[in-house]
Amino acid sequence: MARVKRGTTKNKRRKNILAQTKGYRFGRKSKERVAKEAIRHAGAHAFRHRRAKKREFRSLWAIRINASARENGFSYSKFINALKKKSIALDRKSLAALAKDHPETFARLAQELKS
Length: 115
Fold this sequence. Notes:
The chain is built from five helices and no strands. The chain is rod-shaped.
């Protein structure tokens, strides 16, 4: 069987690893072993933070809804409860957008819930 030299494969792999660490500092951008570890850690953090981002945004939406709801005479929990009782199916993301960008529409919604 013919002998297979691994030079091109190894160089391609190394080039790919170092391309992924572009912008990193010190040996993390230029030394293969350190770069591999940096990529592994970066991937783990990215995975975790993609999930954390969802939690953070939901809490931000709750804060925005609460602030607007209090201006209109509701607390957050009473506002959400009133929405559910009236069968108004708006999610927190769209409610927060209304509260932030269209406060007059949010106020009309709050008046609808009071009546």
